[in-house]
């Protein structure tokens, strides 16, 4: 733990905005959800991330993907609501 704290301290001095995550597995699940939503939509629509946030139809797709990820998370023993993922 001291080595991790020293590393975080060194990175903070470089203004990289890092922090220690207490629940890395939960954070990775949420990152998976973000990537499952954004990557396919921006690739298929050839658009920037901001369009997804601004478009109600795309937000519905995001909601469906989040519901699917929430179901997988529950099956993996990491319950999370689709609303929390959105």
Low-confidence stretches: none
Taking all residues together, what is the mean pLDDT? Answer: 91
Report the total helices: 5
Structural class: mainly alpha
Rg estimate, integer Å = 16 Å
Kindly state the number of beta strands: 0
What's the helix-strand series?
HHHHH
Report how far apart the termini are: 32 Å
Description:
By secondary structure, the protein is an all-alpha fold. The chain contains five helices and no strands. Helix 2 (24-45) packs antiparallel against helix 4. The longest helix has 22 residues, at 24-45. The radius of gyration is 16 Å and the shape is flat.
What's the short story on this structure?
The chain has 86 residues and is mostly helical. The protein is 74% helix and 0% strand.
């Amino acid at each position: 733990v001291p080595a991790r704290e020293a590393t975080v301290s060194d990175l903070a001095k470089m203004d990289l905005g890092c922090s220690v995550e207490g629940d890395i597995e939960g954070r990775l699940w949420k990152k998976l959800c973000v990537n499952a939503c954004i990557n396919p939509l921006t690739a298929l629509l050839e658009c920037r991330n901001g369009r997804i946030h601004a478009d109600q139809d795309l937000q519905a797709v995001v909601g469906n993907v989040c519901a699917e990820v929430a179901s997988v998370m529950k099956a993996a023993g990491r319950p999370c609501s689709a609303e929390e993922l959105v």
